[in-house]
């Protein structure tokens, strides 16, 4: 683990004693939802056997106390969600919009990205940053870009009326704190995407937030947007955690709107990269992203929604002009003052532990434990 990871509290924020947190741990019996409140950790499996059910119940107090926060020191932390659908938004920040256009025009070739970036930034940087998606001004800019031959499918979702919303990975396929995260072994241009992730109930309303890493393959998506599935949905390519911070009097969606996110990448080769993202620069309000996700769709077990990132690393790692890409062994640390710290080590999707515990396995396990009731 990197020297800035936190062990005693397993990534909880400094003000954790003032908040309410949901999570999951692996016990000898199986995956178990836990609640952290008032300095104590509670086993919630007999209250509701899944995090999804706990959120639906609205219960935020525990009955069976596991002990103080120190019980987490040796616990195996799982991703804090279970039956929720995993949804994600892309191109919600001006910087990420430009980077997606660069990938598209470079056809996934990192060697020409720097030249394209300089040209596009000069022409589009200011106008994209100052445009409200779906506004009359956005429509006028769109028409100008079309006439100039500069229109892109990524600019469509950046400033057009419809947000990019996709399914990141299957239910139960996310990984959690200190787990390996995977990039495809045949990818040569990729990066982490540190994001604030909202947790919504079946009504589409956010009940809390956590941190996430929406691992991205720039070469695959850059060759064709139709490769988004291969670029985004691979074994261990989605991490969440360490815990869900539930909304209460001291933490609301307004805190999400102003959340700052920092990220550090530490390589085994001595490489160090630091980045910063702020939700203040998001182009669409989080509640608008939730609304569009729920438009003409339903999620009876709730869903999580990655809000997007403005972090797009361009710092050269090896030879000049190549930019950044991951190497096996990289430690990615994502932090936010009110949400805590999420730490993962990079490997390939082929080498990461295979996803082998699906929905059928979960319900078989809950049935054996006597946790399912009519």
UniProtKB/TrEMBL annotation:
PANTHER family named in the record: 2-DEHYDRO-3-DEOXY-D-ARABINONATE DEHYDRATASE, FUMARYLACETOACETATE HYDROLASE DOMAIN-CONTAINING PROTEIN 2A-RELATED
GO biological process: small molecule metabolic process
GO terms for MF: hydrolase activity; metal ion binding
Protein family (similarity comment): Belongs to the FAH family.
Name by which UniProt lists this protein: Fumarylacetoacetate hydrolase
Start and end residues of each Fumarylacetoacetase-like C-terminal domain: 170-346
InterPro entries registered for this protein in UniProt: FAH, Fumarylacetoacetase-like_C, Fumarylacetoacetase_C_sf
Keywords: Hydrolase, Metal-binding
Any one Pfam family match given in the protein's UniProt record, by short name: FAA_hydrolase
Chain segments annotated as transmembrane: none
